[in-house]
Design a protein that fits this description.
Length: 377
């Protein structure tokens, strides 16, 4: 009997030829706080995506960060960021990436292209329009939010968006949300725009929803309320970019903040890029940034992948990952090898500015569970 489609690996079900994420929509600050105890001088494995969080991990002073992805398009995003960090000063870096306005991105790219590996140079040579618009905006997910903003302006005009993003106390944010923002038009738009059908067509690949049960929009809306009220809005790069299409100086992701840029530049040689599955990267690791990859796997695939990662984990290593729609944790038969740091995960999740995730996980490998013969850092 042929294997059911939803039980086949995600690379056989979804396309990875184009950029899905021009930016990383996961909070690198909570990721780095979770990995800090094991990162200094250690070896870290990170899902690459667009590269933001792989670069952010360099701020922890690891010996090496291995950034891995199934998608060469996503790895091309990371390679271009690396080249830009190496060759451009801060002002030119921010302009080239699309954080600030710039009219010379294509000429900047021509000065950077010889520093790219062949696959990345070929990829970007054929997509000058994405370079010209700023690569942090180059993904399908960013295009989805662009469409979202074009609808939002009919519900909440610019002045109200600016008011939402202004510095306020938590009580003031709650009052503004209830009195000015959470209208029936907002709720209707949210229910339609964040439905499984629309998100699958315009944002995420429909294959990413195969293991999701129940409604999608209502769950995302419930979590979004927290991002609009409980968490400060004026320093939130993810909310700011969703609502305005731009980051701001006071709301930048970790890898772009001024206190981290030079440190990242100095440590770029510690970054290694690998095309393939996370569980197939060789060697032993002290920490893992696994994004939300388990969401796209069947329960059996999740168990196999998690077990393979444990096989290359040093004793005391930490596995960090998010759940958005699909509950995934430590497989039951591996529970004696891992300690789930639930209280730490809860505290970090409460201040996670990428507010749309259902849960955040910090799993620590026991001395018996990690790969033997590797000293934990």
């Amino acid at each position: 009997m042929p294997e059911p489609r939803c039980d086949r690996p995600i690379e056989e079900r979804a396309s990875f030829d184009s950029i899905r994420y021009g930016s990383v929509w996961e909070d690198a600050d909570v990721l780095c706080d979770a990995l800090a105890p094991v990162a200094e001088g250690g070896r870290l494995l990170s899902v690459a995506s667009a590269g933001d969080n792989a670069l952010a991990l360099l701020t922890l002073d690891p010996a090496e960060v291995v950034a891995v992805d199934l998608s060469l398009a996503q790895l091309a995003c990371l390679e271009l960021r690396v080249a830009a960090f190496r060759e451009l000063d801060d002002a030119k870096l921010l302009g080239f990436l699309g954080v600030t306005e710039a009219s010379d991105r294509l000429s900047r790219y021509r000065s950077l292209r010889d520093n790219l590996p062949d696959f990345a140079r070929t990829f970007w040579d054929h997509r000058p329009e994405l370079v010209e618009s700023g690569v942090v905006h180059a993904g399908r997910f960013e295009a989805y939010f662009h469409t979202f903003r074009s609808v939002l302006r009919w519900i909440h005009p610019r002045h109200r968006v600016e008011a939402l993003l202004s510095a306020r106390s938590g009580e003031e944010r709650e009052t503004f949300y209830r009195g000015e923002w959470d209208s029936w038009r907002w709720r209707l738009m949210f229910r339609v725009f964040f439905s499984r059908a629309v998100m699958g067509r315009l944002g995420r690949d429909p294959e990413f929803f195969h293991h999701v049960d129940g409604p999608v929009a209502s769950r995302v809306r419930d979590r979004s309320r927290r991002g609009f009220t409980t968490l400060p809005t004026h320093t939130n790069p993810y909310l700011t970019c969703i609502l305005t299409g731009r980051y701001r100086a006071e709301a930048l992701p970790r890898y772009l903040r001024p206190e981290h840029r030079q440190r990242i530049r100095e440590r770029l040689d510690r970054l290694r890029i690998h095309h393939g599955r996370v569980e197939e990267v060789g060697g032993r690791f002290d920490g893992f940034n696994l994004s939300d990859i388990f969401e796209y796997m069947s329960p059996a695939q999740h168990e196999r992948c998690y077990g393979a990662l444990l096989d290359c984990a040093a004793p005391g290593a930490r596995l960090i990952y998010w759940n958005m729609m699909v509950p995934r944790g430590v497989p039951a038969h591996l529970a004696d090898q891992v300690c789930s740091l639930d209280e730490l995960a809860r505290v970090l999740h409460e201040r996670d500015r990428a507010f749309f995730y259902q849960s955040f996980h910090v799993d620590e490998v026991t001395d018996e569970g990690g790969a033997q013969g590797v000293n934990h850092v």
